[in-house]
Amino acid sequence: MTEETLLSVRNLTLTIPTGSGILHAVRGIDFDLKRGETLSIVGESGSGKSLTSLAVMGLLSKGIKREADEMRFDQTDLRSASPKVMRDLRGNRMAMIFQEPMTSLNPAYTIGDQLIETLRLHRRVSKAKARERAIELLEKVGITAAASRLGQYPHQLSGGLRQRVMIALALMCEPDLLIADEPTTALDVTIQAQILRLLVDLTKEMNMAMILITHDLGVVARVADKVAVMYAGELVETGPAKDIFAAPSHPYTRGLLRCIPQPGKTERGAPLGTIPGIVPSLIGEVTGCAFRTRCAHAQPACREAIPHHGDAAHRFRCIHPDGARSAETAEGEPV
Amino acid sequence: MLPFILKRLGLALLVAFTVSFISFSLLFLSGDPAAALAGETASGEDVEAIRRLYGFDRPMLVQYGEWLLSAVQGDFGESYYFKLPVASLIAERLQVTMLLGVCGISFALLTAVPLGVVAAIRPNSLIDRVALFLSVAGQAMPSFWFGLILIVIFSITLGWLPPSGAASWKHFIMPTVVLGYYAMPAIMRLTRAGMLDVLNSDYIRTARAKGAGEGRVLFKHALRNAIIPVVSLAAVQMGFMLGGSIVVESVFALHGAGYLAWESIARNDLPTVQALILVFSMFYIVFTFLADVLNAWLDPRMRSS
Amino acid sequence: MSSDVTDPLTAEIQGPTPREMLKARARGHKGLIFGMGIVGLLVLVAILAPVLAPHDPYAQSLMKRMAPPVFLGGTWEHPLGTDHLGRDYLSRLIYGARVSLLIGAVAALISGVIGTAMGVAAGYFGGKVDAVVTFLINVRLAMPVVLVALAVVAILGGSLTVVICVLGLLLWDRFAVVMRASTLQVSRRDYVAAAQVIGASTPRILLTEIMPNIFNNLIVVITLEMAHAILLEAALSFLGLGVQPPTPSWGLMVSEGKNMMLFEPWLVLIPGAVLFLLVLAINLMGDGLRDVTAPEGRS
């Protein structure tokens, strides 16, 4: 299994010193990713999913402290990698696209300059060759008249086109891993579906692993092989996408799924679920289950260490061995 | 971009026209320029003679029209004091002032931009604090006093630099520092704020995600965007500096256009003063116009629109 | 849902009120404290000048010309020495604070009224009003301030009133620029739209909805322009075309000391240093007020 594992993260912890104490933004995250596999990290804003991906890329802001028992990308230990080694990986073997296509491209340079720069940072190729590659990729991401687009500036393109350019930019060096941080959130609904389809097709075609960060479970259901659910800096549940949707185990995951209508399951006219309460402050020591302040099944024991349940493939953290599923059924709540 | 340039040019001309009218009419504030010119000891007949000689007896608008008509042809009349054509007088003196202005703005840019960049890269570091101190002190420093202190230190005490005159490059060192320091704080603050802003932007994160090195991120991706507003500011400051050269030139006895302005004002030399106000205004108008055009050209969003 | 109040995760965060936060930020701002302290001190000195000054600032004594200050071997009779006419330097310095502060405050007030009226009108009414105001700002910026002020003061004669009026009529540009931008920002807010919807009159909206919300910015510009006016007055007086002798103006004192600079550099250093300190303090106060009222200002 190790030889096909591309990315392996164990006990990743991120802390941010603030004026009023230490913010425990991400606490003890584990996950693995194989070549060609798509992992979707799901959670509300502020749950630490973007920070986790930036930690993998080595792009955290200066103040943030990163600790992990293991962080391995292919043969490289990311914890001890020098800035030079990280630079050689970034944009080359691991690439990232961001939420805001409108502001993620440099306004001062043409699309072509920015695409060509990426390739020439990592490959010794002539400008002409890099230009050919740029045109090829723009066509691949579905941009027509690609050659003429090279001379255009970002502000001349629509949001959807810019996100396609960002994808082309990420793929210039054929990376092994693509991290997409909410790539469709800022786009129109019709464009969202196109971009998502494009990402799925490209990962298949190039046998590229992808971490797709989103708060949209609808997106997850369509593209992910594996799902990791994050809440307030913790991974509460992780497993194959099919299992998570068929048998959500953690109370938070079930709460999330109740918030979206599911064809065939949600009755017409029935109110959608909500999760009452707000995300707790993570400043200072955080012990026990962070979801206990909003969980219907919370008990005093939730403040203690929380055990993992399930097998290596599908795991969740909760004091209830069945994630309080039996309690919910007894109360007659919809599952 | 051409419509933008034409529109901007029209505005510049309109401003220039208005300024010319104001600078001309300012000198009628005293009520009777003939009396001022004749001096306190002159008799009523003398004043009347002067009034007719210089045409002060005609309506002001007529005088303005004549003045403007010859001014656009480069004729600003004759200096009352020097008895020379004002235009050639100013042209001769402007060389010193222009040299001083170019040296001053270069000094300001060469110190302020690097300081602002470093301060933005390392906020709250020692360099950031030094830069902040220099800019706060610079904004409070009376330039005539700063000039005199430099003379006390470098001319009187150390004897390294000549205190006055314009004979060699050494004469320009202290005036350059004083004039440049006047423009430095604003440029430094804008560079720092612009760099901080840009460094937090999404496209800088994209550049890092590409695997670009720090140097490339800072200079190719960040500075290129942060410098655009600094270009405009530098042009505005250059305009202000030329207008402010009067103080520096008088401290260091540099016989430039600013010094000429001081002399002419003290001597009631109206045609020279009028022409100098117009010339300094024109410099400001031309500089800001060029800066806006350069700005539009540097910023692709404006270039194509 | 657990309502356990002892659980640290559910503990309600008791935030301070905006006013408390403002006060706390002000107390923690060294520049603001320093600036306000110095300005307060100099205002006090200016008010109490007749009490504090050891001598008449105009009394000449040719016998005691250019006595050195105490720290250069002088006597306590004249702690900061005497000038070229034998006048007590400390007394002139103390009375000079009156001139600087008076000119700075009144000039800033005049230009503040002009500039605020123009800026608020431009920002609120927009359209043609805005176009005219913007044009006037452009014209004003194109005129070289020192030169125009010098010329006008020279024509009208360098009295205190003339200097104040000329500076007041010249320095309104920054008020107009800042107030225009602030008004533009505020008038887009919902509460202004709400006031318009319920039929409030334009003067009422300007006074009760717009002015209170741009007041912080106005205070900041007033302080900065006051410093600007003080510096300009000093420069005009230094060039001999501002406040006329024997009025004790710091700029004039520097100018008078300049001729003796070779032998008695302190004649130049002392008034310039006080001028620098006052302007520095006012600027620090202005910057501090901006930081405190708009915390996103500096990093």
TrEMBL record, chain A:
Residues 7-257 form the ABC transporter domain. Transmembrane segments: none annotated. One of its GO terms (cellular component) is plasma membrane. It comes from the Bacteria. Keywords: ATP-binding, Cell membrane, Membrane, Nucleotide-binding, Transport. InterPro entries: AAA+_ATPase (IPR003593), ABC_Ni/Peptide_Import (IPR050388), ABC_transporter-like_ATP-bd (IPR003439), Oligopep_ABC_C (IPR013563), P-loop_NTPase (IPR027417). GO terms for biological process: peptide transport; transmembrane transport. GO terms for molecular function: ATP binding; ATP hydrolysis activity. It is a peripheral membrane protein. NCBIfam families: oligo_HPY (TIGR01727). This is Oligopeptide/dipeptide ABC transporter, ATP-binding protein, C-terminal. The lineage of its organism: Bacteria, Pseudomonadati, Pseudomonadota, Alphaproteobacteria, Rhodobacterales.
UniProtKB/TrEMBL annotation, chain B:
GO terms for biological process: transmembrane transport. It is found in: Cell membrane. It is a multi-pass membrane protein. Signal peptide: none annotated. It comes from the Bacteria. SUPFAM superfamilies: MetI-like (SSF161098). Residues 94-291 form the ABC transmembrane type-1 domain. GO terms for cellular component: plasma membrane. The keyword Transmembrane helix applies. Keywords: Cell membrane, Membrane, Transmembrane, Transmembrane helix, Transport. Gene3D superfamilies: MetI-like. Pfam families: BPD_transp_1, BPD_transp_1_N. The chain crosses the membrane at residues 98-121, 133-160, 172-191, 226-255, 275-298. Belongs to the binding-protein-dependent transport system permease family. This is Peptide ABC transporter, permease protein. It comes from Roseovarius nubinhibens (strain ATCC BAA-591 / DSM 15170 / ISM).
TrEMBL record, chain C:
The chain crosses the membrane at residues 31-53, 99-125, 145-172, 214-243, 263-282. CDD domains: TM_PBP2. Belongs to the binding-protein-dependent transport system permease family. It is found in: Cell membrane. SUPFAM superfamilies: MetI-like (SSF161098). Its main location: membrane. This is Peptide ABC transporter, permease protein. Residues 97-286 form the ABC transmembrane type-1 domain. InterPro entries: BP-dependent_transpt_permease (IPR050366), MetI-like (IPR000515), MetI-like_sf (IPR035906), OppC_N (IPR025966). It comes from Roseovarius nubinhibens (strain ATCC BAA-591 / DSM 15170 / ISM). It is a multi-pass membrane protein. Keywords: Cell membrane, Membrane, Transmembrane, Transmembrane helix, Transport. GO terms for cellular component: plasma membrane. One of its GO terms (biological process) is transmembrane transport. Signal peptide: none annotated.
